[in-house]
Amino acid sequence: MTRGISPPLLVLLLSSAYGLSHGCLQDTASAHRFTGAVCRLTYPAAVVLNEKTTKVIEAAFQHARYPGVKGEKTLPLMGNLSYGLENMEIHNLTIGQSSFELLPGEGIAMKISNVSAVFIGTLRYGYDNWLVKGAQSINFEIESQIDLGINPKLYCGNGKVAADTSSCYLNFDKLRLHLQGERKPNWLKKLFTDFITFTVKLVVKGQICKEINKVANILADFIQERAEKVLSDGDITVDIGVTTAPTITANYIESYHKGFTNYNNSSAVIINSAFKPSQLTENRMLYFWISDQVMNPLLTAGHQDDRFRLNITGAELIELFKTNVSTTMPVFFRKCLVETSHPELRVWSSSAPFVNTSTLFGTSVWAVVSGQLWCESQEILSFKTFITTDVTISYVNKHVVLHSKSSQVDVQHARLYQYPLVNEEQLDLLQEAVMKIGIPKVLSVLETEITRLLDKQGVYLFDIYNPEVLPRDGFVIVQMDFGFPHHLLVDFLSRQSSTIKAPL
Hints:
Mean pLDDT: 79
Structural class: alpha+beta
Largest sheet: 6 strands, antiparallel
Shape: elongated
Low-confidence stretches: 1-22, 498-504
């Protein structure tokens, strides 16, 4: 059974999310142990991509240029005939129908039927015999109808998935030559039709197969870069190179990625991943499997890069403390917030936060947070607190939403300056303030920052439907349906027009 898809989707699906790595393991089961992230694309996702990429292929071919061809032929009575095809271009290309089939464990078989196109160009010819010599040029137009087939073989090369598209064939259902100038150039048309059409077939076959591979690789490189940047920012990068070649079944294509965090010339290593293919289903269009072993090195790098620091000042700080707290607020605290003109609260991570994901509790975040309260440029309070909070993650209206289900707060170190020692009531206030004010505020800031990073890479341009983040033991599964925005590919190709139009 075949289902609709366009040719470059082969590499788009199999290479798009892949970054560079140093090599791939041949044994898939062994490679799973070093896998930090997995991407599974199912057939419904391929259908959506197919609807958009077909038009992009048409645009690419319409602007493609074809190399000139020169040749020489000896004809009876005419003697030596030299000819050249120049300035050949393809116009008015339309794709009637495309289909593909996943061959489990092998590759992909693809067929494109009823490809209609008009080739135009200039024919230059000269003849030299015992009677006469001459040279002329004439414009030509060739109507064609083509069936195209590609049987790519997939392999892992230089740390990324590659496709060998050498098995590429074209069947010409129609190839009709029209020569400009004479209304009925019968003798000239008969003379040139056979070997010109044969030459055109060879040129078109080679160029179309090259163009398919070229456009597919441009798209793949573009999406590779975007995928790698989604989890990277500044000096923190993530290596999403593949650990092994993708798995192909009749219903999905699945790729396996390292997910190693790189920071300050050091790289995290995953050596005992919990991934098993049975952990993912086939009910949604797109799945991402992400290990805690990917997230924790990211958090460590963020801490080392001083990312987890927040200063709240003035009216914003005063507004936060309007939250209803049951513990009586000490006089010095109220005085700082009400009577001073520039109150400031500074909080930061004292050590790297740690994430533990489980089916029972969800995503649990453990953190040690230090804080200082400043009034009129003087520090009046410092504290350190140990926090454990269970967080749910969702993506609503193209915005990341973090919600704390339950939290535990333990203030173990607190110090007052120019005031008596911290008493039990004041510790209770700190603990309640961290619980009711601090954690929601930090989650709100993280929501905005994570959304900003996703928007920076254009995630908001996609129509994402019913995304779910499912916590499991040691990993999360992100599953969704999506709509692929056609304008993204069109804009991309317009920016790459100089590359696409360059003669090969």
